[in-house]
Structures
1.
Amino acid sequence: MLQGKNILVVGTGLIGTSIAQGLINHGLHVVLSDVDPQILGTAITKSGARAWDSSENIDLAIIATPPAVVARIIKELIASQPHAVITDVSSVKGSIFNSLHDVSDSDKSRLVGGHPMAGREVKGPESALGDLFVDRPWVISATEVTSQSAIDLVRELATTLGAVPIERSLIEHDRAVALVSHTPQIVSSVLAGQLRDANESDVELAGQGIRDTTRIASSDPELWSQILSGNALEVAEQVTLIANRLHGVADALRDGDSAFVREVLVQGNAGRDRLPGKHGGAVRISVATVMVRLDDKPGELARLFAVAASANVNLEDVRIDHSLGRMTGLVELAVAMDAQSVLVKALISAEFVVVR
Amino acid sequence: MLQGKNILVVGTGLIGTSIAQGLINHGLHVVLSDVDPQILGTAITKSGARAWDSSENIDLAIIATPPAVVARIIKELIASQPHAVITDVSSVKGSIFNSLHDVSDSDKSRLVGGHPMAGREVKGPESALGDLFVDRPWVISATEVTSQSAIDLVRELATTLGAVPIERSLIEHDRAVALVSHTPQIVSSVLAGQLRDANESDVELAGQGIRDTTRIASSDPELWSQILSGNALEVAEQVTLIANRLHGVADALRDGDSAFVREVLVQGNAGRDRLPGKHGGAVRISVATVMVRLDDKPGELARLFAVAASANVNLEDVRIDHSLGRMTGLVELAVAMDAQSVLVKALISAEFVVVR
């Protein structure tokens, strides 16, 4: 039970302060620590938690510092807080927990790896948000000797903040995030890097495709170089596979082997279809798409959503098309298959142009 | 002047039928041709144009077939229609026009390369849309001997359909689309291909990042293998650069060279910033982002847009965050910098949670 416990958050950036704020909102007792007094001050104001007096005993410590210093802080807390359950929020697990090989099993039983999969493209305590973790996966990775009570406490931490706890081994975690997060980050950054020295007249023709593919290339280089370095071998392996495959496509293009190129595109279709959610993935069984062409006058988007709402249709997804750096009038709404005809009828009665 | 002219569209898929429909909506005279009588029938019903009687003379021919047969059809029309201006809509230019080297200069003066940069993830005449080209770039590429009157006619075609004509040489066109469209397509397909044989438990952790990076991996393999093969050398060159860079990142990760990794991420930031539109690109000088956390109850999205509309704020962009295959409550609105505070005030008075 978190209630009545003394909870410490070490590292009060976006994630740490968001956790503190969320826990305070649930009436829990939270203290904060950060090496930077100014950042700590902002986090205190923002979250309503107070600064940690290091003579004070802690029941649960959440380490939300950059990945590079997490292992060191875990060791310090193991020594100074002999009864605390200790968890972290890093995007990497193996490299941190491997460097804890000299920790005794009895101390390791208090350690729980954690990774709330939420974030924002802005950073710092001023951007914190108590409900940042709502509906997000919070990966929980125990060591081989972690106690069930320690795991349960971190599960409660996750659910209190509205997240969905998902248990994975340290190795499973690192392999999964290499696949769905770290490798896409590198690929997107390298692809976007090609635009850097391109002619202005070439870049001008950019549409929605390259915009989507390079969105995450805007991520923070400092944080991400730490994350990627912390999962280096797993990511290197996947990036190498992709690089080899791209060389294969380049060779096929030069050799006129369009069957090979086609096969790569077919495999891309199949891979894309594995993503949860849209188009028959794991979470939703079937989603239908309704395309609407909006007139270029103010308020049309509002009217569109109002019609969907009054038809009692729940939108699974909304995507708006872009061109020439502007939003165009083409809006794609994803709804449950059985809601499609209801939505289309409602839109047509409201005189929207539904594209078929 | 298009008015009064006899306009032929050859190939009545999505693009050809959309062109026909748009021109018919402007009271122009359009006839259609397609090798597949069933597709032609659908296109006639959909667009209101009629079938071409091949004894009938044509003033403007628009070739909207798959790229692989465009050159052949251009040659046939040069022979059978000695006075027609001839244009196409292919995503590739050099490979088509290079194979026309035996066409006389006087015939070449009637040829204009065209590429309306619009499309949909569905295909066929039944998906056609008369205003598919509104606000889209329509690249116009003349040969070295194309007459000004032929260029002007194709410019008028583009503007009649609401598109923005952009003149580029054949070489410039192919280089630009390799950069902003063809290479991203391959990179996205190869990245998505990695998901194909992944463990379900790994894919389950997918968030918005990989969802965006792999969106275009859903594209049609048949069409895209033709497009890529038609721009093979330019695309192969760019894909090779990316593959080499990825190998460099993989090596740096294995060697623990985090400075190199960081530099690649910094270059990704810089490349991304070159895209027109959002975040200081060419079209809009300054766009601000407002993040709103929506309650999970029906109609909140509608209410959000209604508030933006009644505050007279024009949304430049809307992005909705996803996790666990569901839409989360985090909505990102992009507005002109000077509209930001107006929007925030309006949202707060309407009791929305604006995330700062």
Note: Chain A has three domains: 6-168, 174-272, 287-355.
2.
Amino acid sequence: MPTFSSFVPPRRVLMGPGPSDVSPRVLEALSRPTIGHLDPAFISLMEEIKQLLRYAFQTENELTMPISGPGTAGMETCVVNLVEPGEKVIVCQNGVFGGRLKEMVKRCGGLVIPVDDPWGRAVDPEKVETALRAHPDTAVVAVVHAETSTGALSDVATIAALARNAGALSIVDAVTSLGGSELRTDDWGIDAVYSGTQKCLSVPPGLSPITLNDRAVAKVRGRKTPVQSWFMDLNLILGYWTGGAQRSYHHTAPINALYGLHEGLRVLAEEGIEKSWARHTANHHALRAGLESAGLTFAVPEAERLPQLNSILVPDVVDDAASRKALLERFGLEIGAGLGALAGKVWRIGLMGYASRRENIDLCVEAVETVVREAVTGMPHVQ
Amino acid sequence: MPTFSSFVPPRRVLMGPGPSDVSPRVLEALSRPTIGHLDPAFISLMEEIKQLLRYAFQTENELTMPISGPGTAGMETCVVNLVEPGEKVIVCQNGVFGGRLKEMVKRCGGLVIPVDDPWGRAVDPEKVETALRAHPDTAVVAVVHAETSTGALSDVATIAALARNAGALSIVDAVTSLGGSELRTDDWGIDAVYSGTQKCLSVPPGLSPITLNDRAVAKVRGRKTPVQSWFMDLNLILGYWTGGAQRSYHHTAPINALYGLHEGLRVLAEEGIEKSWARHTANHHALRAGLESAGLTFAVPEAERLPQLNSILVPDVVDDAASRKALLERFGLEIGAGLGALAGKVWRIGLMGYASRRENIDLCVEAVETVVREAVTGMPHVQ
């Protein structure tokens, strides 16, 4: 039989595209004793999580809950419930995750109407407007709020309004934005939003909070075809999450992960969502000042930058992989590599949730400055 | 903004159909600091988890890994990857979970050939043989090893052999059996197995270990149609879990949940899988002796009983829901209600993993005896 030691993680500061550093309060909550998923005490916890998520999403939507899987499962849950075979779906793509949305729409029989923008730029709402005029029978418009693969922030308020005026539903990917960038689900009239826990909520990965308004729920309830996924069928999941005293079993909820989410959402509510947005922005400016002083350049135009995910051009003088390895091994600092079209071209530096702190900015600036200087001088910096 | 206290779970002994009591070692592991999903240290952890799971499944299969969702996600992953539209699938049903398999097969375009047995009985291999003769073009045979909804154990070794002789693949649901009942994936020639963490592994719910042999992987790799789920497409997931140094990103792995699984699998390996099976059987006999002394009757015939999930007929004198409430509130003891055809007729008493201990048997027998006696005498037992 295999014998391994208990796993002791190395000391890291997580400033990549996620997971971000998890608050000690959340880590402690994860280790509380497991109880049953139908226990009255757990049902109360679920109700509190729903209320806390409504606050985070800035919504009154009844259907607000965590999906029992990572952000990708939340994305697919929204797509397979809201798209019926043969329907037209405008998918905005300006990075990896718009591409993933397209693939999911195709796999459930939707017809993708692509609206493509360059990687590292925001989605252009005028292109969405043009696509809606060309395809007035569009059923759904899907767009990523904060494109984690590039660090670009898109104007989903405008895009959701365009969709609604054209009679289409909107799906917004808020995986990296929730808690870090202004997101007002109700005020902006977004019909469905999904997110993840491992970005600005600073909860470990594995859950995907979603919220759907009444228009979206009506579509799910009135589908002509069954949702192709049994696991993700909201008609069934709602029997458990909104069933009240008559809650019906669908799948066993991930109890301890939900303890962690509850605590992470409490941390957010204590700070206040607007203050959290402001902190992410302020820390972004501090990081920017430090990195620019060190001679580094941002990849995304200023007006379209995400505060919580900073894409920096990899300086010509350094070796991408070797530098990130040095940051990890010598400074315990994780930053992200470029993905897809930006692979090898950018570093992605996250400032998300609990990780968005002054001491992390100082560490990051010093560490990045060091590895770049060493590349220029050809000698390791004496520490 | 909503303000809630940090969640402190009530003290419970989990002897229902799962989740089961989680080992303190596993709870502690959950709270270790989160690291990145592409961190070299995490990649090493993933390799150890794969080896430990191979031991638990008794297999050498390369594709052995946890799916990032509960057992239901593992079930659907096996079905959507191994069934193509239009293919015939024999689904054995003797409880809730066979019914769930049928629904998933239908939703991905498979043609269900039902093999039904009464709830509370094992699947009859002769019926499977007859169905295979009537449908020689059957592509897949799906069967539940340990039917959690009834407490019946089926002979999946014989059923997998029948499938293989007929040229069909076998899918076995081992959610409740893994670690608690003899399961020999390779020796029995099973092509695909999925399980859950919250039963006899005594890890919180949220992950679904799966294993596929080369025949099953060849089918996934050689599909004529794309897997309908992007999230569950093993062709994509394997790029992350078996990609070696060139691991490609698919979704963010649930880091801390995997710390817990690693520790839970270490606990199993330290005990030894055969010893774990034997412990579950011995404790089942002890519980049986106690409950029968108290006048209670098992719902499943002796030869077909699961040691880790004991279905007891609800005595005529008691109120089902009120009695379970009394067990929970006065004894901190969670047992399970009947499901589906057995709702209101049985209690399901789990003895799984860390919960399968002598002290729990004593607590359960005393508590159940007490609430039954009180129902007979009409007065609460003085404690």
Note: Chain A touches chain B through 84 residues (CB under 8 Å).
3.
Amino acid sequence: MPDPVRISVDGMGGDFAPQNIVSGCVQAASEYEVQLILVGIESQIRAELSKHSAIPGRIEVVDASEIVAMNEQATVAVRKKRNSSMRVTVDIASRGDADGIISAGNTGAMYATVKMTVGAIPGVDRLPLATFVPHPKGRSIVLDVGANVDCKPDHLLEFALMGSVYAEEVLSIPTPKIGLLNIGEEEKKGNDLTKETFPLLKNSGLNFVGNIDGYGLFAGMADVVVCDGFIGNIALKSSESLVETILHVLEKEIEEQPRIASLLTKYFDYSEYGGAPLLGARIPSIICHGRSSPKAIKNAVRVAVEFCRNNVNERIHKRLERMHSDNSQQLAQ
Amino acid sequence: MPDPVRISVDGMGGDFAPQNIVSGCVQAASEYEVQLILVGIESQIRAELSKHSAIPGRIEVVDASEIVAMNEQATVAVRKKRNSSMRVTVDIASRGDADGIISAGNTGAMYATVKMTVGAIPGVDRLPLATFVPHPKGRSIVLDVGANVDCKPDHLLEFALMGSVYAEEVLSIPTPKIGLLNIGEEEKKGNDLTKETFPLLKNSGLNFVGNIDGYGLFAGMADVVVCDGFIGNIALKSSESLVETILHVLEKEIEEQPRIASLLTKYFDYSEYGGAPLLGARIPSIICHGRSSPKAIKNAVRVAVEFCRNNVNERIHKRLERMHSDNSQQLAQ
């Protein structure tokens, strides 16, 4: 890997683009050892850059004439907008001119673009989208949160392995605790999927701590919580909406409501974590929240750099190979 | 149906039994036209009754020597404790001596007992457990929330129909809006189950308003939200735990925390709704929260009486028959 790590960034993706993206990139380029390639409508990107007094030499601008809208259908965006900032950002990395990818644009379109143009690490079957949920002592990674809605037990095992490697290498958790999201903690509980996944995780060599039920999701029972994308998506979105609901309930009644809102926002703030890693893609890819602040973008750059520098993908590949060869040996015995 | 409606109540079920159960029953018997059969260890039930100055004549006590523990395995409870207060409560209704059933005991055991000894309304395939989630203007029914973890599209259709009849007859909502819990609102979104269920609901004659995503769950987008028990259980439990998490976050920082806790408790308070109806069972059955207050038990009695008096089960049966005959006609055409 060339030094410094090169990250291509979709300059036009997100609700506050290009402003927050450019601003976050300027901060990242000053703080980290990184070469950034900012992709988008060049005049707009340069206009934003010109607002910053000291522009680090490590930001390059690449023009792309189109923009994928936040509500655009993913397949249409991938097929028709070949010159979108998102597509060009991904293409740059795909042809070897960047080591990692960041976008705060349309999640579905970004996922589809990476999946179709970058593809998977050899041996990886599904690409899960991971996110972070807060607990009293930190954050748990939850995956998949919406990309793969019908999973098989082997997919959840793959997610567990990838989540574990990511937690080790990027979050510096030595032997991450892996939990299986389920309706109860007992081994025999669950639907067909979780009942079949449980023994796979138990024999995986990962630090599997068993089933985690809905009550445990925000309690930090595991560092990595594995589930299919349907359940992950609904659990996360309903929780997000519940926090908003609670703030509304308190709004009319409590004078301190603004302070409560700020405390809760801080507790649920994902910006330190820099966005959702799309695991299993051949090139490290981070999909940031559409409403990302400059700080979130800056942290996404830091995370992308660690994702590349710590060889997460190579480790995933090797661990998968080892797991598959262990399984073959077991079958042969 | 004899007048007044007769409800058998498990006097020993729940974390605060028999105290809260007896107290709720005494209140209910004074307020409503109902005959109550209180089942449990007779000396304990009578001791609780004696604490109330005016004991209405409409409470009868039936002795049962055993108690199903809150954490006892459901199958063991059903098989081995033939003389538990729960089992006797259900048996009384099963042999025709009561019109409805209430227990605040072990949910799994109560569900299994009703399913095995009472059985389903003819034509009903699965018995969903329903619960209520708050929204700014009231409550939505969500079903199933844990009883049926692997469902087929026909099951979700059945749940929708039963939830709709319940909302009409017990909650007095004229044409309840039915939503399908999903990862997005567009028709084509979802996993295999929801994609196959969508057209069934669309052609069901119910007031189907489409998919409801996680964000919509607490927004009152539908009066009845349908999902399989796996997703319902996790969405509900994780939301419950999130409310607790939020109270912990605020506990250290906010002076008004006790007032916040009381506001949130009030918002999320289900006691007005009297517990979770177990829909599709041949005899109206209500499973109350283990921590039910006397008020919750009183309201459970009110709900059970309406459940019986408004012929919910008969209407479910007729509507199912009509739906099945419509389907046969469509197939024949």
Note: Chain B touches chain A through 49 residues (CB under 8 Å).
